[in-house]
Design goal:
The longest helix has about 35 residues. This protein is α+β, with helices and mostly antiparallel strands and about 400 residues long. The chain has 13 helices and 10 strands. About 5% of the residues have low confidence. Helices cover about 45% and strands about 15% of the residues. The radius of gyration is 21 Å and the shape is globular. Among the domains are: about 110 residues, Butyryl-CoA Dehydrogenase, subunit A, domain 2 (Beta Barrel); about 140 residues, Butyryl-CoA Dehydrogenase, subunit A, domain 3 (Up-down Bundle). A hairpin with a 2-residue loop joins strand 2 and strand 3. The strands form 3 sheets. The chain has a 4-stranded mixed beta sheet. This is Acyl-CoA dehydrogenase. Its EC number is 1.3.8.7. One of its GO terms (molecular function) is medium-chain fatty acyl-CoA dehydrogenase activity.
């Protein structure tokens, strides 16, 4: 038994597996083709206590920490879900933590504490208006950082927010926003100085405000059941009460939450690899060629052994780093390494799994085909592999 394998966490796995089996698997193919998951799924997950895992009970969550969130993510995928489903159903994992931290509530896996040292106007009120309803499954939130010409350059954000009395006037655009179409509100990074100055503030912007337009639904290679949108802001008046923390603390808030986000993506990567190993083993046992099961051939057996080894090694390292993050250790470099290790393992294993499935693996009816498509984003989201390498090199003192 380890810290991530306790009796309580085994029960959490069982609950998650039952939820996926009953509520997800019969419908996932339809959601993939529809381009989104139904809002009712959020409410169902909330009633079971899964939606609020990792968030304190004091803000409407189910309790637990980063390790519990990782277990839910892992088990959703291992049970036949997908990383696209994780992105759609658990978007609040990147939309809410900044509000919770600004209200002075600690979340395992982030630095926590009030941004700017003291509570800013509306901090506790934001918890009541947005955090609690979202964790109850009655609202959906999104996080808007990326801009059309910005990519990973968070400090270069050009969407501006000019103070005008009790409001900010917001102008700019965002792109590749996960759950952007379904979201009731968007936690938005804006520049409160001149564009690109790096003086960032986070505002909660409600859908439906005049001047706030949700653009076309973006079609993607993978994550088909997770809706993605472009957002436009033209003279959108946002109440100062919707500011998260003190002004110009947005960059720090974003950086503080990256550890949890990157570990979530790393978890999705190794869990996808593990699931694909399971699918490949099952296929190779059942599939016969020239009168013999594929699994009887040494070249296939050795390939499966290598795939299993890579997936398990990635899982072990991500868990080790996650335990340190949950304990409050400043392991920025190790988080970057964990993400890259898991993504590299996923890329290799998913590719080999599809190859072993042959022509069937290329068909939409094959689960491995969905994982093959979904896996490609994991080395881009939350900081690309190249950005992770820069963090690693700096940690080496270079």
């Amino acid at each position: 038994m380890s810290i991530v394998d306790t009796p309580e966490r085994r029960q959490l796995r069982e609950l998650t597996r039952a939820f996926v089996t009953r509520e997800v698997l019969p419908h996932l193919d339809d959601w993939e083709r529809a381009g989104e998951v139904p809002r009712a799924l959020h409410a169902t997950a909330a009633k079971l206590g899964l939606l609020g895992v990792g968030f304190p009970e004091s803000v409407g969550g189910s309790g637990g920490d980063l390790l519990d969130s990782i277990i839910v993510t892992e088990e959703v995928i291992r049970s036949g879900g997908s990383s696209g489903l994780i992105a759609a159903l658990f978007t609040h994992g990147i939309a809410l933590p900044h509000m919770v931290a600004a209200a002075g509530v600690s979340i395992g896996g982030s630095l926590g504490g009030r941004l700017g040292g003291t509570s800013a106007p509306g901090d506790d009120d934001l918890v009541q208006r947005y955090v609690r309803p979202t964790l109850a499954g009655t609202m959906i939130g999104a996080l808007a950082i990326t801009e059309p010409d910005g990519g990973s350059d968070v400090a270069g954000i050009r969407t501006t927010a000019r103070r005008d009395g009790d409001h900010y006037v917001v102008n700019g655009s965002k792109t590749y926003i996960t759950s952007g179409h379904r979201a009731d509100f968007v936690t938005t990074a804006v520049c409160t100085d001149f564009p690109g100055s790096g003086e960032l503030t986070l505002l909660v912007i409600d859908k439906g405000l005049p001047g706030f337009t949700v653009g076309r639904r973006l079609e993607k290679l993978g994550w088909h059941c997770s809706d993605t949108a472009e957002l436009s802001f033209v003279d959108v008046r946002v109440p100062v009460a919707n500011r998260i923390g003190a002004e110009d603390t947005g960059f720090l808030a974003i950086m503080q939450n990256f550890a949890a986000e990157r570990l979530s993506l790393a978890t999705q990567a190794y869990a996808t690899a593990q699931r694909c190993v399971e699918l490949a083993v099952r296929w190779c046992r059942d599939r016969e060629t020239f009168g013999r099961p594929l699994a009887s051939r040494q070249v296939v057996r050795h390939r499966l052994a290598e795939m299993h080894t890579r997936a398990e090694a990635a899982r072990a390292y991500v868990h080790e780093v996650a335990v340190r993050v949950a304990a409050g250790e400043p392991v920025v470099t190790e988080v970057a390494m964990a993400k890259n290790v898991a993504v590299a393992a996923c890329d290799e294993v998913v590719d080999q799994a599809l190859q072993l499935h042959g022509g069937f693996g290329y068909m939409r009816d094959a689960e491995v085909e969905r994982h093959y498509r979904d896996a490609r984003i994991l080395g881009i989201g939350g900081g690309a592999t190249e950005i992770m390498n820069e963090i690693i090199v700096k940690g080496m003192g270079l």
